[in-house]
Structure formats: structure tokens, C-alpha cells
Design brief:
The protein is mostly beta strands. The chain has no helices and 29 strands. The protein is 0% helix and 39% strand. The strands form 8 sheets. It has a 4-stranded antiparallel sheet with strand order 3-2-1-29, with no helix packed on it.
């Protein structure tokens, strides 16, 4: 097994055999940089992509073709230096340029700012990388300000899929507390033309034609903190998840509320049930039980730590509504970490492994679908993302 961990100050690779008892740690890669996300290609496990970003130096896409032993910047032309003359990194080596209207050459649209005014889109960073299920050279990138980009040449060039921003509701999108980010991309394994994305704070969207045209899929969501609680867009969706055997069934962790859709997002219903708090960031689905889902409740949107200072993963075996606390091996007093939206992953072994990282720098793992937990590494920088690969 290989666990890919992105943190505030670099990337780490954790490896183990199939027993998942002892873990070797490699890193930090890109030390000192924020690594919002790192993920491997399902078509080639040795092909890894990482989003390396800095408020000072910009955005760099890194790629490894040997499972993380070595890395290079695919967007930097051969022979060109990856640093400036004074030795600083050249973030512009991987440019993400928003599409413009072919008639006017101006941006497709503006978006709403915190104060209600309209602002132009400005690229800040890549939040999420989603490699194609079949082609290691094709990757989708979710960025801030929210837009969807794609590369088909292994990260050398990136082009926006402008139908998402330009489909009509863009001027009503606005930033959430963490910015206006496209943070979730789900590819339907049974239909190559269907994909889902989630944006904070705009909502969830679906494409049925490979990313050319999009529709909001937010009916049934209710957000009391926006002017129109049941609006078509404007909902702060934190994460969506699905099981590959049932791509029409979606689970959502919203700003408040855990939600479920059984019709590809056409409608949603709340399944928060008996959770101690229905605020949180992560949500994921058991590898072999499509009705078993996991969340990590957080006290509130102003107090980003577990209720009562007790770190608990909650599991529902009924697709939501009825939840049980999974606590063995997790700290049950004086624990005030957060678990961010991309910081949970599940492997496909039997029983499946569940992994999550915290802002306190721990990565916890369960080799028995959540029955018990142990930290497989401690004292990392704050964890931003966790992904897992099964290697052969």
C-alpha cells in the first residue's frame, strides 16, 4: 500500500505491505511548500501528480513517473531552468489561464465577492487533481477561483473546460470562508462522459458530455445563511463521494447537513440522523459496502475541532440516518484537531483500510474498516489531503 499525504509544508509518501502494520515514511518532498493534493493514476500506479503551491512563488504541478522517488515539472520546457537567476522557484512554469469569450476576448463571466460586488476570476492555486481512470496523461484539476482544467499531455499544458463557469450561474458564485475553490471531482467509472464537481460556495454540478456542458444539481439543499436558502446555487458543499458500483448514488458533507442523492444529484435528502454535529468536511464510502459511509463530525463552522474534544469517526451501514461512533485507538479527551475535506481515503483490500489525516499532523489508519485505529505517522505539518494506492 502507498498513502500519499499532502501537508502545509511538503508531501510525504507512506508505504507498507498488505498487512498494513508497519509503515515507512518518505519525505518531505517539496519541503516548505503547501501541497494541497497528490494523487496517483489508476491506469499507472507509478504516475503521481502533486499540486505544489505558495503564496510567494505561485503554483507548480509536479509529476513522478517512478512512484515518487523522483519528480519533475512537466510544464517547464526541456532545457529551461526551474528556478529564477536568484534561485527562487518558477511557479509560472505551469500556467492555468482562464478561457475568454471568443467574441470579445473578455472573461466569460464575473463572480460575486463577499461584499456582493462582482469580481473577475483570478487564479490562486490547484486544490484537487483527478487523474483519468484510463489514461495516465489525462488529469483534471479543480482550482481557486473555481474552475475546471484538463491536461491530456501529462501536465505539460492545461486548458479550461469553460462550460462550467460559463453555463449561466457563474455571477452568483461566491467564496466560502476558505475561498472559492473547486475541491471535488468525481469521474463515473461506468460512463466516461459523466462527471461531478463540488465548489465552495456554489454547490454541486454534473456534466453528461465529458465536461462541455454542466447543470447545477442542488435541489433539496437548504442553507440558512444565504439570502435564498433553497437557491439553485450558492450552497457551501464541502465534499461529495460515491461508490464505483453505484455512480448514481452520491453522498455529501455540506457546510451543515449530511446529504444523499439516489438519482445522480437531481434531488437530495438529509441523512444526518443521530450525529453529534452535522458540520464537517470529509465523507467517504466503504470499498465493498455501498451503503456504508464515514464522516468525521466537527463542532461548528466557528469551532473547527471535534465535539467535546473527542476525535470520533462515525459510520453508517444504512446509507445515512443511523450512525455509530468508531473510537478505539483515537484520542477521546483534549483533542482539538480538524480533518479537512480531502483528508480521508479508503483502500480496496478485504477488510478495507480507512485513512485520515488531521491538522495536528497525525495520519490515522484502520485496517479493519474502522473498528480500530492507530496513528501510522505523527508530527507532520497540518495534513491537507490523503490518498491511497494498492500496489502489486
Amino acid at each position: 500500500m502507498r498513502v500519499l499525504v499532502g501537508t502545509r509544508k511538503g508531501a510525504f509518501l507512506l508505504t507498507s505491505d498488505g498487512t498494513r502494520r508497519r509503515w515507512d515514511v518518505s519525505g518531505p518532498h517539496f519541503a516548505g511548500w503547501e501541497v494541497y493534493h497528490m494523487k496517483g493514476s489508476p491506469a499507472d500506479p507509478d504516475r503521481l501528480y502533486a499540486s505544489q503551491t505558495s503564496g510567494w512563488f505561485g503554483q507548480i504541478i509536479q509529476r513522478s513517473d517512478d512512484g515518487g522517488r523522483t519528480w519533475h515539472q512537466p510544464g517547464t520546457p526541456p532545457g529551461e531552468s526551474t528556478t529564477t537567476p536568484d534561485g527562487m522557484p518558477k511557479g509560472e512554469s505551469n500556467k492555468f489561464v482562464y478561457d475568454t469569450s471568443p467574441e470579445t476576448g473578455k472573461p466569460l463571466t464575473t463572480h460575486q465577492h463577499y461584499d456582493g460586488s462582482q469580481r473577475p476570476w483570478q487564479f490562486k492555486r490547484v486544490w484537487h487533481l483527478e487523474p483519468s481512470l484510463t489514461d495516465p496523461d489525462t488529469v483534471y484539476a479543480g482550482v481557486e477561483d473555481a474552475a475546471l482544467f484538463r491536461t491530456t499531455d501529462g501536465g505539460r499544458t492545461w486548458h479550461e473546460l469553460p462550460g462550467l463557469r460559463g453555463h449561466g450561474t457563474g455571477p452568483r458564485w461566491q467564496p466560502g470562508a476558505g475561498g472559492m475553490c473547486l475541491h471535488t471531482i468525481l469521474l463515473d467509472p461506468s460512463d466516461a462522459d459523466r462527471m461531478y464537481v463540488a465548489i465552495s460556495a456554489a454547490g454541486a454540478f454534473r456534466s453528461d458530455d465529458g465536461g462541455r456542458a454542466w447543470k447545477p444539481i442542488n435541489r433539496g439543499l437548504r442553507s440558512e445563511y444565504i439570502p435564498e436558502p433553497t437557491a439553485e446555487v450558492g450552497h457551501c458543499v464541502h465534499r461529495i463521494a460515491m461508490h464505483r458500483s453505484r455512480p448514481n448514488v452520491l453522498f455529501m458533507q455540506k457546510h451543515w447537513d449530511v446529504m444523499r442523492s439516489d438519482d445522480g444529484g437531481e434531488s437530495w435528502r438529509e441523512v444526518s440522523g443521530n450525529l453529534p454535529s452535522d458540520f464537517g468536511f470529509v465523507i467517504d464510502v466503504h470499498a465493498h459496502e455501498p451503503e456504508t459511509i464515514y464522516v468525521v463530525p466537527i463542532k461548528s463552522d466557528s469551532e473547527h475541532f471535534p465535539p467535546e474534544g473527542r476525535l470520533r469517526v462515525y459510520r453508517s451501514r444504512t446509507g445515512g440516518g443511523e450512525w455509530e461512533a468508531l473510537t478505539e485507538g483515537l484520542p477521546q479527551r483534549d483533542c482539538y484537531v480538524n480533518v479537512l475535506r480531502d483528508a480521508m481515503a479508503i483502500d480496496a483490500l478485504e477488510p478495507c483500510g480507512v485513512y485520515f489525516g488531521t491538522t495536528g499532523g497525525q495520519v490515522y489508519a484502520s485496517a479493519n474498516a474502522g473498528e480500530s485505529w492507530a496513528p501510522i505517522v505523527r508530527d507532520l505539518p497540518a495534513v491537507l489531503s490523503v490518498e491511497v494506492q494498492a500496489l502489486r
